[in-house]
Amino acid sequence: MKKGVNTNLLHGYPVIDNYTGAASIPKYQTSTFDQKEIYFDSKKYCYSRFCNPTIDALQKAIAKLENSEYAFAFSSGMAAITTALLLFEAGDHIIFPKEVYGGTYQLSTVILPKYKIESSFIDCSCLNNIEKHIKENTKAIYIETPSNPLLKISDIIGIVELAKKYNLLTIIDNTFMTPIYQKPLELGCDIVVESMTKFINGHSDVVAGLLATNNEKIAKEVALLQKNFGAIMGVEDAWLILRGIKTLGIRMEKSVSNAIEIAKFLETKEKIKKVYYPELESCKYYSVHSKQATSGGAVLSFEFYNEEDRKLFLERIEIPIYAVSLGGVESIISHPATMSHACMSKEEREEQGISDNLLRLSCGIEDLEDLINDLENSLK
Ligand SMILES: Cc1ncc(COP(=O)(O)O)c(C=O)c1O
């Protein structure tokens, strides 16, 4: 019988320790394993860079979350993304969205060219535009939807069809939506990557990443990279994420319902020029987004008309922490121009529509009334 999201998050993968029966998978804090006796299943475990029972349990949980055959845990979202991009070789070309996450942008513009992997950064919200940029040596389309910080939406199903037509792989960064609300592998993507630092762990205390796929050939290559590139996750971090995953459903539900109400509230405020949130009917991407995701997520951005109002707002706001990152139980407010997008020039930012008066809010699970009161007071 098909079970609900929260039941699956608590019981849908091995949650009991095979060896001891412990109700929480223990932290197998060990680098190596005595191999004189046969413990667990044969000699699967011999060295923790290759395989560790705590990390193994997390990888099974990720496979359940993403509904994938294969799942891999990494020491950061960037380690997962780097691993995905190391599947390509000299002479290959990859298409990225113009507003791709800053770390992915630097990886593709500064590091991958050393290995002769070429990249183009284009507006991926338009399928014709993507098709125009496909070249002889193009091997993949990389998607990030919703994008950061303007929550721009790319049509996943359309891109997958286009990729199939040209025999390209599709890789998607699903960090903002999480597999709770958007399941890219079910929509036909080949590889999903995600920063587990954000909603999946959810408590702003771990840096981690995942990669999932249904393709056996890709999985074999990823396993080799995971082992030999070596960006494996620490045992303590894996344990914390296993704990975080159990409440992912209810955390997301509360954060998203806060985000919807806050987006609607901000839309009515005269000091706010524009609210960016894909579940608002005023959002031009609303219909594409609702075809591929079941919620607008917990992140929204909003732009002030002028700098003074934006500064006063930030001085007055009390509840959200002012920080980079997103996806914690606590609300997090950030200023893209000086934080996540500071590595771009002002002209590049403006070209993308990222104004200096734009703020991004990752909604936490605080009481809505308190968040609204805080916003109201800070906007006065
Ligand atoms: C959309 C997105 N992808 C990837 C990353 C990188 O993740 P990590 O910081 O876990 O390496 C981030 C981090 O902010 C992100 O926002």
Helices, strands, pairings?
Blueprint: H1 5-11, H2 53-66, E1 70-74, H3 77-85, E2 93-97, H4 102-111, E3 118-122, H5 127-132, E4 138-144, H6 156-165, E5 169-173, H7 178-181, E6 191-195, E7 209-213, H8 216-229, H9 235-245, H10 248-267, E8 272-276, H11 286-292, E9 299-304, H12 307-316, E10 321-322, E11 332-334, H13 346-352, E12 358-362, H14 368-379
Helix pairs in contact: 2-9, 12-14
The protein binds pyridoxal-5'-phosphate.
Pyridoxal-5'-phosphate binds at residues 76-78, 101, 103, 144, 148, 173, 175, 195, 197, 207, 209, 325.
Task: Record keyword descriptors for this entry.
12 strands; Aspartate Aminotransferase, domain 1; Aspartate Aminotransferase, domain 2; 15% strand; binds pyridoxal-5'-phosphate; alpha/beta; five-stranded mixed sheet
Describe what this molecule looks like in 3D.
The protein is an alpha/beta fold and 380 residues long. It has 2 domains: 5-245, Aspartate Aminotransferase, domain 2; 249-379, Aspartate Aminotransferase, domain 1, CATH 3.90.1150.10. It has helices at residues 5-11, 53-66, 77-85, 102-111, 127-132, 156-165, 178-181, 216-229, 235-245, 248-267, 286-292, 307-316, 346-352, 368-379; strands spanning 70-74, 93-97, 118-122, 138-144, 169-173, 191-195, 209-213, 272-276, 299-304, 321-322, 332-334, 358-362. The strands form 2 sheets. A 7-stranded mixed sheet has the order 1-7-6-5-4-2-3, sandwiched between helices. Strands 8-9-12-11-10 form a 5-stranded mixed sheet. α6 links the parallel β4 and β5. α2 (53-66) packs parallel to α9 (235-245) and α12 (307-316) packs across α14 (368-379). The radius of gyration is 21 Å and the shape is globular. Bound molecules: pyridoxal-5'-phosphate.
